Amino acid sequence: MIRLSVKVPREHAEVALLDLMAFAPGGLEEVDLGDAVEYVLYGAEGELPALGDVRAAVGDALVEVSTSEVDEVDWHSFHHPLDVGPLRVRPPWHEPRDGALDVVIEPGMGFGTGSHATTRLTLELLTALTPEGALADWGCGSGILAIAAAKLGWEPVLACDIEPESVDEARAAAAHNGVALEVTRCDVRQGGPPAPTVLANLVRPLLLQVAANLTEVPERLIISGVETHEIDEVLLAFTRISLVERARREGNGWAAIELIRAPY
Could you tell me which SUPFAM superfamilies the record lists for this protein (predicted)? Predict the structure, then answer.
């Protein structure tokens, strides 16, 4: 197993992550190094991008990129069920919870296996809502949030991602979970398929671009991928298009925020 390490200054971490996600639809490991952040990809020989390609993608933000051999990783030990309200999100080797709505995601699929705080926080806000009509998930990754929404009773559920691998894997995950999703490719910086309720579990730079470019404002938008020190800046951007905060969840330095169309 090869471990590819990319270290960048903390102030450039978000932009570097956006560039690196093109190489890693299966997700990245993130290591806090204080003033820097290390992003790690794992794969067999020949599966990982060339170091020159990584250097070119990250550019001036790069501190160091390197590879090393590591023992085979026991992925099962890293992935545990996530219980949020009526939902259980789990890898296939864990048992369902009696009476729960079961969402099964294979780790290593498109970005998002339920292990990150932003997924849990978004699901906490989503499960507090009464399903009302159509819902869209912009930047769906593995499809975990869209599948959860369909299990909760939202219909139709639309999902999109810029990565073709994520689109394919979200479709496969939906079929495995027995739900109907309409999954397409999209550039989330320009928004995605319209719906009264939209989920956008992205990162700050993408959310700011969504706010700047959005032409059709949804009735409700749940944003996540926001670090707590970024909340004011992101909220201001959406306030300018008449979306205001209704509810918020925070945890592990991250936030998910439910925005609704201002009543004026």
Answer: S-adenosyl-L-methionine-dependent methyltransferases
Could you write out the DSSP letters of every residue in 5-58?
EEEEEGGGHHHHHHHHTTT-TT--EEEE-SSEEEEEEEE-TTTSPPHHHHHHHH
CA-based nearest residue to 136, from 127, 144, 146: 146
pLDDT averages per 10-residue partition of the chain, 264 residues: 83 77 65 85 70 72 76 64 94 93 76 69 97 96 95 98 88 96 94 96 91 95 93 97 97 93 82
Neighbouring-strand partners of residue 65: 6
- In 3D space, the residue among 35, 38, 29 whose CA is nearest the CA of residue 64 turns out to be 38
Q: Counting runs of H as helices and runs of E as strands, what totals does the chain give?
A: 7, 14
Q: To 10 degrees, what angle do helices 13-20 and 204-213 make?
A: 80
Specify the amino acid at residue 238: F
Q: Give the model's pLDDT for residue 47.
A: 65
Q: Decide: pTM greater than 0.90.
A: no
Distances (CA, A) of 255 to 155, 196, 250: 26, 22, 4
Q: Let me know the angle formed at the C-alpha of 215 by 212 and 220, rounded to the nearest 5 degrees.
A: 90
Q: Among positive and negative, which fits the CA dihedral 153, 156, 162, 166? A: positive
Q: What angle do CA 256, 258, 260 make, to 5 degrees?
A: 155
